[in-house]
Amino acid sequence: MANHDIHLTVRRGTVHALCGENGAGKSTLMKILYGMQKPDEGTIALDGEQVALHSPGDAIARGIGMVHQHFMLADNLTVLENTVLGAEKLHGIGAGARAKIREISDAYGLNVRPDVLVEDLGVADRQRVEILKVLYRGARTLILDEPTAVLVPQEVDALFDNLRELKSEGLTVIFISHKLGEVLSVADDITVIRRGTTVASVEPAGTTPKQLAELMVGSELPSPETRESTVRDEELLRVDDVRLSATDSDGVVRTVLDGISFTIRKGEVLGVAGVEGNGQAELVEAVMGIRTPDGGTITLDGTDLSRSSTRARREGGIGYIPEDRHRHGLLLDAPLWENRILGHVTERPNSKGRLLDLAGARKDTERIVAEYDVRTPGIEVTAASLSGGNQQKLIVGREMSHHPKLLIAAHPTRGVDVGAQAQIWEQIRAARREGLAVLLISADLDELIGLSDTLRVMYRGRLVADADPAVITPEELGSAMTGAASGHLSASDDSVDTAAAQGGDAQ
Amino acid sequence: MSTSTPTPTAKKPAAVDAIARSAARDKVLLGVAAPVLAIVAAIVISSLVFLASGENPFRAYGIMADYGHYSDSQVWIVNKAVPYYLSALAVAVGFRMNLFNIGVDGQYRLAAFAAAAVGGAVALPGALQIILLIVIAMLVGAIWSGIAGLLKTTRGVSEVITTIMLNSIAASVIGYFLQDGRLAIKDGNLLHTKFLPESSHFFSFPTHPKPVEGFVVVAVLAGAVYWFLINRTRFGFDLRAVGASEPAAEASGVSVKRMVVISMLLSGAAAGLVGMPTLLGESFQYGTDFPAGIGFTGIAIALLGRNHPAGMAFGALLWAFLDRTGSRLEFEGYAQEIVGVIQGVIVLCVVIAYEVVRRYGLRLQQRKVGEELAALARTGDGTGSADNSDKPEVTA
Amino acid sequence: MSSELKSAARTAAPAPAPGGRRKLTYPWILLIIAGALVAVSALRAVSGATDLTSGGQFGAALSAAVPIGLAGLGGLWAERAGVINIGLEGMMMLGSFAAGWVGWQHGPWAAAAAGILGGALGGLVHAVATVTFGVDHIVSGVALNILALGATQYLATLWFGQEGSAAMVAGGNDKQSPPMPDMPTFTVPGLADWLNGIEGHHWFLVSDLAGVLGGAVTGVSWLTVLTVGLFVGTFFLLWRSSFGLRLRSCGEAPLSAESLGVNVYAYKYAAVLVSGALAGLGGAFLAISVHFYQDGQTGGRGYIGLATMIFGNWRPGGVALGAGLFGFMDAMQLRSGGPTVHALLLGLAALLAGLALVRLRAAKRAQAAVAAVAAAVLVVWYALSDSVPLELVEASPYLATLLVLALFSQRLRAPKAIGKPYRRGRGH
Amino acid sequence: LGLTATACGQSFAEANRATHAGVGLAFDIGGRDDHSFNEAAARGTENARKQLGVKVKMLTAKNGETEADREQRLTSFAEAGYNPVIGVGFAYSQSVQNVAKDFPDTTFGVVDAVPTGKNVDAMVFAEHEGSYLAGVAAALKSKTHKVGFIGGVNNALIQKFQAGFEQGVRDTDPKAKVVSQYLYPNNDKGFNDPAAAKAKAQGMLDSGIDIIYSAAGQSGAGSIEAVSKVKGAWAIGVDSDQYRQPGLARYKDHILTSVVKNVDVAVFDLIKSCEQHKPLTGVHTYDLKHGGVSLATSGGFITDVQPQIDAARKKIIEGQVKVKETPKS
Ligand SMILES: Nc1ncnc2c1ncn2[C@@H]1O[C@H](COP(=O)(O)OP(=O)(O)OP(=O)(O)O)[C@@H](O)[C@H]1O
Ligand SMILES: Nc1ncnc2c1ncn2[C@@H]1O[C@H](COP(=O)(O)OP(=O)(O)OP(=O)(O)O)[C@@H](O)[C@H]1O
Ligand SMILES: [Mg+2]
Ligand SMILES: [Mg+2]
C-alpha cells in the first residue's frame, strides 16, 4: 500500500507544499490526483464538487496539470510538439499554437523557443517546457513533483519567482519537495506525509526546519557532516588532461570533457558539483573505462590505467556506485546473488578460474544482506522486487566487499530514504578512514559539502572552480555551477571571488 | 527506519516463514503454469480449427499419437529433430544476449556447402576427415554470422537486417559455386558437390528398422556444452548479463561489443553444425536439394524451449513429431497443412503464456516481498523507530 | 591543486556548432534527383545499356517497388508508434491469400479490400500479443509469420484445392487460388506515346528523362497510384495532424503521452492495424498483378520492406526511396540480367571515387584509400568482362541494402521507445 | 520418446501390412495443378483410373522440405500397399533410390531422373528434341528475327530446353538472335514466380524480341501474359498444351505452340505394366521418335510452317540432326 488515510485540503490561489521522506507516497498521491492511478477508496473534491478522475485526460479537463518528478518529454519532438500533444484542439498544431506558446512564455518569463528539439535543452529549460505544457492547457491547479531536485539554487529562485507570479494570477500550486528550506520559503501551507499517510498540516510562519524534519521522519534528519579529516599524503588517483568528445546522431561532434585534471589522495573524498549534463556522468564513465577519452591519462595508485578495460580497472581496485542503479547497477530480473556477482565475476568468491562459484557467491550474498541490512526475505528474489533503498544498499555492499582503493559514487543516496541514506554515508565514512579514496558526484549539495574533503565544480565539460567544503555554502556553489563564478570560491563576504578566475593560482 | 535494525536473517518469525513457504510453492506452480497454459490453449485453438473445417480433432490427435508411437516413426523423429535442435541452439546463443540471429539459415547452408566442397576434394584418414569437415563448417558458419556481428559493433547496423540480407547473399554465393565446372558435378538433372569419401561418413546406431544417426550424440553434447557455458562459466555470466541489461553489463566491465561479436561467432559456429547430420550421415554431398529453412524452424524451437537446452530438445522433438504424424494425416483424409497451423498456434500460445505468467509472477513476488517485509517489521523490529507512525500528530 | 584550475580562465567549452543538423530542403532534393538522373544517363550513354533508363524498366521498377514500399510503410506505421513489426511478412501472406480468395469470386477491387482486411487481421494478432500481453515484439512477429504461413497453406487446401469444388474447377489448387480478372491500368493518352517516341531516340538526358516519365504514365496499375497516395497521405497524417503527433509520441515517449491524456493503447492498436492493412495491401498487390494467390508469393518482401524502412530512416520519403531503389535493382536484374547490371559496376565505381574524394577532404585517408581501391577494382572488372554472373545480379539488391546501411546507419534515428514494453500507469 | 526409439518396438509397416491399395503419386512442390508436368502426370493416372480401374492417391511436397520428408512420403505409400509408387520430378531421384531398396516388391517410378534400382522405372524425356522443334517454329515465325528463352531455374534439366531451342533457331535461321535468360540461378522459386517471368518477358519484348519460349513451370503464365499484351508477339508454352489450359484461356490467341512432354503417357505405361504384372524397370527415354515429346498444334498458328517442322522432326528421328543437351557455353 502506498497511500492510506490521506487527508489533504488545498486553498485556491495558494502555494501548497507537500513534504515527506523518499517513498513516503507523495508522488503516488499526486498521480491519483492527476488520474494516473486509481485510489482504492476515498474521494476527491474540486471546488466543493466531488470528481472521479479516471485518466489524466479527466484531470486536464478539470484544470489540473502536473509536472512530473521525472520529466515527461519526448526528446525527438520539438518543444511545440511536446506542448500541443494531447491538447491539439485548443490552438491546433501549427501557427496558432506557436503564437500561444510565445504568448504564455512571455507572460510568465519562461523564455522557451517552440521549434527546438527537446533533446537539445538543458534541465532548467526542460522544466520550463513542462510548466508551459501545463499552462498551455489552461490549468488552474498545478502539481509540481520535486521540481527543484535537479536545479541549482539560482534556478530554484527563478522557479519560485515564476510560482509566485502564477499564484498572483489566481492559480493554485501544489508543490512537492523534501528540501525543507525551500518549502518554508515558498509555501503558504504545508502538509507532511509519512509512510503513505498525512501526519500533519502546518503553516510555514510558525515552523522551523527542525520541527518539519521531525514530522517527516520522526527524528532529526541525518547529516552527512564529516568533521575529522582522514586525508593522507599518498596520491591514489591522478587524472591528467582528460579530453572526450562525442558524436551525436546528426554527426555533430561535441566536446563533453575538456582538459580535466585532478588528483585524489588516500582517505580523501573529492566532491564534484555541477548541474546535470555538464559532463559529470561522462567523467565517471571515462574513469571507469566505459568511454574512451580522446586524450589524457588516468593513473590509479601508480598504475597507468588509461588504456585498460573497465574490467581491468575494477580488478585494479575501483568500486562503482552508478548514478542510475536500474540501468547501470543491477540486473533487475536476476536474483540477488547474481547481482552480487555482477561487476566482480572474475573475483573471489564469485568465481574460481574461469568457472563460476555459485555456492561462494550465494554465501557471500547472505553476508552482504546481513551486514548491510538489505531488507529482503531471501537472496533468490529478483532485484526488481526490492525497494530502491534496499537495492542501493545491496550495490554499496557489493562494491565495498571487494575493498576498493577508489570508490566512484554517483548520487549514492538519490531516491533513498533517510534511514538508508545515513547507512550509506556511514559506510563511506568508515571506508574512508581505512584509506579509501572517493570520487563523489552528487546533485544534493548538502551531501556534497558534508562528505567531501575537496570540492570541484564542473561546468560545460570543464572543472571551472574549486572550493573548501568547510566554509562554502550551497548558494555559492550553485552560482559556480551556473557558470557565473569560477576559480577558487572562497567564503568571503560576497558570494564569489571572481578575481581567482584570472589569478588562478592564488592559493 | 533506523540504522540499528536487527539483521533479517537472524531469526525469522513464523509469519515470515509461512509467507516464504507459500512463495516457494508459487514458484513451482508458476513454473508449471506457463507450459500447461500454452499447451491447453494450443490444443483448444487447434481443435477449433479442426472443427471449423468440419473435421473431428480427436480422431486426428488419435491418428497422430498412434502413428507416432511406432519405432520407425520414433527413429525418424529423432533423426529429424537433431538438425532442428542444433539450429535452435544456434539461435538461442544469440537470444540469451538479445541478439536475433535470423541468419542461421544462410549460415548452415553456406557452412555445409563449404564442408561438402572440401570433403569432396580431400580424404584424410579415419576420424580426422570428419573432424576437419566439422571444423570447416563451424568456421564458415562463424565467419558468415561474424559479418553481422562486426557490422553491428562497428557500424551499428541491426543484426536482424544484416542476417536477413546475408541469407539471400549466401544463397547466391552457393548458387554461383554450385555449378558444373565450378565446385559441383552434374548428376542427371541434379547438381551437387563431389561425394564425400567413406571416411567422412558419421557412425550410426543400428536401431530397427532404420538406424538412428550418430550425430544425435553431437547434439546432446552441444546442448550440454551450451548449458554449461551459459550457466556455469564466467563467460556465460557475462553473456547473460548483456542479455539482461546492456548498460549494466557494460558498467560491470563486460565489453558489450566484444561479446556481440563473440556470441555471433558462437551462434554461427553452432549454425555450422546444423547441416552436418545431413551431410555426414545422409546425403554425403551438397546438392540443389539440400534442405533449406531449418534456420527458421530453429527460431521457432528456441522460442518454444525458452532457450533452455532441455526445453529446446522437447521443442525439436515435438516439431519433428508433428512433421512425421502430419503427413500421416494426409492419408486419413485430413490436410497435412494443418500441422503448420498447429505449429504456429503453439509458438504464439507459448510466447504469450510465458509473458503473462512471467509478469504475474513478478507482481506476485513483489507483493510477497512487501508482505514479508511488513511481517518482519511488525514482529522483529519492535525496538527501533518502526512504530513512530503511531506518534500523535503534530499541528503547528 | 590550483594550477589545474587554469582552465577556468579560458572560455567555457564550445557549445555545439550551430547549424550542425543538415536539413534536406526541397531545392537540395531536386538537385540530388537531377544529379542522379544526369549520372544515370551518362552511364547509359557510356555503357550503351539502354534499358537502364527505358520506360519499361521504370514501369517494372515501379511495380516491383510497390509491394515492398507498402510493407515498408506498414513497418513505419507500427514502429512510429513504438511497435517493432517483423511480422510484416506474415501480414503480407494473409493479404495475398485473402486477395486471392476474394478476387476470383468478386474481382480485383474486392481483392484489394480483402487484402487490406487480411493484413489488418494479422496486425490485430500482433497488437494483441505485443500491446495487450506485452510479448517481445520480435518474438511475436516471428510467431505471427509462422502462424500466417501455416494458416494460409491450410486454408488454401481447404478453399482452393478441395476435390471437385467450384474453386478447383475454376483453376484453383492446393497452392494457388483460381485466377481473377485483370485490374484495369491507366495510361495517359498521347503523353505516353510522345514520351515513348522521345525515348527511342536515345538523346542524352532527354530520352532518359522521357523514359523515366514514360514508365510513370504507361500502363500503371491503379493500385500503384493508390500507393503513391498512401505515401503522401501517411506523411500528412503522421507529420501534419494531431492524430499523427499523438501516434508518434507513443513511439517516442509513451509515458509522456499517457500523462497528457493520450490513450497510448488505442494509438498503438491503430498503428499496428494500419501497419497490417498496408502490408496486406502489398500482399494483395502481388496477388492481383499475377491474378492469383500463390503459396510463397511474398518471397521475403516483408523483410525487405522492413529493411527499406530502416534504410529510409523511418520516414515515408526515405521508405519510398528505398523501395524505389530496391524495385529498380530487382526490375533490372529480372528484365535484362547481367549486361545492364554490368553497366552499374561503372556507376558504382564512380560513386566510390566520389566518396574517396569526400573522405580525402575530410582527411580520412584510410577510408579514402579503401574507396579508391574499390573503385579501381570495379573499373578493371568492368573493362575485363561484358556481363556479371547471374548470382551477383540476384544478390545485388541485398548487397546494396547492406552497403547503404553500413555506410549510413549512424545517421539513422529510430523512434526512441521502439520495442520497449509499455504498461498503462506504470510510469515513474 | 527418445528412449523408446532405440532398437526395440514395432514399426508401422510390421503392424500394418497392406497390399494393392492402388497407385501412389508424389508430386514435387508445384502441386497437382501446376499447368505443367505434375498436371501431366496426374492426367496419366486419371487415364489409368478410367481405363484400368486402379485407385489413385496423390500427395504433394511442402516448400523447403528435406530428403527425409520425401523418403517418408514414398515409404508411406509403399507401406500402405500402393504399387507402383511414382515420384514426379527429379527431386525424388535420391529418395526413390533409397526407398526402393526397402520395398523390393513394390515398383517405383520417377520422372526426370535416373536413379538405379532393380525395381525402379526411370522416365526421362528428350526435352531438347521437342525444344528444337519449337526453335524451328520460332525462327520461322519471328518477324524481328529476335527470339527469347526464359528458364525458371538454371539447372541441368532446364538447360536441355534451352540447348534444343537455341539449336533449332540457329539451324533454321542463322541470322536470328536468341536471348536466353533465367529467372533464378539456383532457387526453385523460379518455377513459382509468374511476376518475375512477367518482368523478364516484358524486358525482352521491350528489346524487340517477338517470340518467347518459357520453360519455367508455373512462372510461365506470367511471361505468356506479358506476351499477350503485345501485338504480333507469340509465346511458346511448355510441358502441356498450354493453349488448352483453362487458366490461360484468355491468352490462348498468343500461344503459338507448346513443347509437350507426355508425362501422362509415361505414367500410364508404368501403371499398365504393373497391372499386367510385368512392371517396367530401368531407364525409359521418351523421345521424339517414341512420341514422348511433341509440338502442339492447337490453334493452328503453325500450320503454315508445319512442313519445315515435319522435316526437322524427320531429321532428328533419323539421326541426321543430333540435338545437344547442354547450351553452347
Ligand atoms: N499501487 C501501489 N501499491 C503499493 N505500493 C505502491 C504502489 N505504487 C507505488 N507504491 C510504492 O509506494 C511507495 C511510495 O512511492 P512514491 O513515489 O509516491 O514516493 P515519494 O514520496 O514520491 O518518494 P520520492 O521522494 O522518492 O519521490 C513506494 O515504495 C512505491 O514503490
Ligand atoms: N503492488 C504492490 N503491492 C505491495 N507492495 C508492492 C507492490 N509493488 C511494489 N511493492 C513493494 O514496493 C517496493 C517497491 O520499491 P520502491 O523502489 O518503489 O520503494 P521505495 O518506497 O521508493 O523505497 P526507497 O525509498 O528505498 O526507494 C518493494 O518493497 C515492493 O516489494
Ligand atoms: Mg516522488
Ligand atoms: Mg523510491
From TrEMBL, chain A:
Keywords: ATP-binding, Nucleotide-binding, Repeat, Transport. It comes from the Bacteria. Residues 482-507 are annotated as: Disordered. InterPro entries: AAA+_ATPase, ABC_carbohydrate_import_ATPase, ABC_transporter-like_ATP-bd, ABC_transporter-like_CS, P-loop_NTPase. SUPFAM superfamilies: P-loop containing nucleoside triphosphate hydrolases (SSF52540). SMART domains: AAA (SM00382). Residues 490-501 have a biased composition (Low complexity). One of its GO terms (molecular function) is ATP hydrolysis activity. Pfam families: ABC_tran (PF00005). PANTHER family: CARBOHYDRATE TRANSPORT ATP-BINDING PROTEIN MG119-RELATED, GALACTOFURANOSE TRANSPORTER ATP-BINDING PROTEIN YTFR. This is Sugar ABC transporter ATP-binding protein. It comes from Streptomyces noursei (Streptomyces albulus).
TrEMBL record, chain B:
One of its GO terms (molecular function) is transmembrane transporter activity. InterPro entries: ABC_transp_permease. Pfam families: BPD_transp_2. The keyword Cell membrane applies. The keyword Membrane applies. It is found in: Cell membrane. Coiled coil: none annotated. It is a multi-pass membrane protein. This is ABC transporter permease. Transmembrane segments: none annotated.
From TrEMBL, chain C:
Its main location: membrane. Pfam families: BPD_transp_2. The lineage of its organism: Bacteria, Bacillati, Actinomycetota, Actinomycetes, Kitasatosporales. It is found in: Cell membrane. Keywords: Cell membrane, Membrane, Transmembrane, Transmembrane helix. It is a multi-pass membrane protein. The keyword Membrane applies. This is ABC transporter permease. One of its GO terms (cellular component) is plasma membrane. GO terms for molecular function: transmembrane transporter activity. The keyword Membrane applies.
